Amino acid sequence: MKKALVISALIICFMWVFSLPSLAEDFDDIKKAVPQEAEEILGNTNLDSNTDFSKLWGKLTENIKNLFTGQIKAGISLVLSITAISLISYLAVSVFGDGGTGVIALAEILTVMAVTMNGTKAAISSSAQAVEDIYGFSSTLLPVLASATASLGGITSSSTKLMASTLAINIFTSIQINIVIPLIYCYIALSAASAVLPGPIKSGAKLIKWAINTVLTGSVTVFTLYITISGVITSTADSLTVKVTKTAISNLIPVVGKIISDAAESVASGFSVIRAVSGAFGVVVVTACMLGPWIKGFVQYISFKLSATICQSISGSALGAFVSDLGTAMGLVLASAASSAVMLYVAIIAFLRVVNGV
User: Fold this and answer.
1) Is residue 120 part of a domain?
2) What is the mean predicted confidence (pLDDT) over 266-289?
3) Which conformational region is residue 100 in: left (phi greater than 0), alpha (psi within -120 to 50 degrees), or beta?
4) Cβ neighbours for 326, distance < 8 A, ≥ 6 positions apart
5) Which end is more exposed in the chain, N or C (fewer Cβ atoms within 10 Å of the end residue's Cβ)?
6) Are 144 and 23 in contact (CB under 8 A)?
7) Total structural domains within the chain
8) Over 80: is that where the pLDDT of 60 sits?
């Protein structure tokens, strides 16, 4: 019995020792999986136990300033353009009258759509690209975190979290690209139509807005609850299993068992470093991916809402309501991008919170 246990324990130790270099090589895989958007911000980063994360966060902060500077200029231009359209529309109605035909109202809505179309489309496309980038990066990052966690004794919890995270992020990405993004375009179209033809069309736009918010909020909430609850259950089981195994080895073979236990702890420290560095780098990369879409969408959101207030004070509620709805659309874009980031943040934290089993 003792002989078999010693052999088994030695085999486990050898597996750990030989798998450590393999996991270390995964640093290179993680670096290769970094999306281009994040790579342009972070530059060429050496990913190892000596990685200077304060320097990486410094690069993010500097990039935030640069992005805000560029986007604020674009936002001011957007506000001035929409304000000019509102003033021209007001003057046209004052001079020529509209005769109840709504021609001028239709013209101002179409003009605003023409002026804002490129910027709005760019913000939505940027958000969709960020969502796809996060999914692609997660498919490399999460298996590395799961392998390191399993090697630390969290076999059950790592496999559960990996399966749940991969499946959830995959499904959520598909929903966003194939359903949420098209619905945002539909919301904008219905908002434009309802500004010219008030009635049930506005209700359709509100329904789409509610559906998007429900899908995004519900998906993130359910995923977070599942990861949290399953993590508590599986982590407890893993901790108990490893504790019993260590006790059995130490009691049955005091001398050899102590040596094996010490060796296991030394190897485990290596896996802890791999998991910690990979997780921290993952958070940085996801944040870098989202900087562009977040800042672009946020500035446009503020610009549209400010323009809506100005329009309502100049030419009435129709144009102001439509411009306000454009701001709401940008808010939905922000929520869409943020939801994907939050899901991966939650998954990373879930792996990092697993207590070392050895």
Assistant:
1) yes
2) 71
3) left
4) 112, 116, 120, 188, 191, 304
5) N
6) yes
7) 1
8) yes
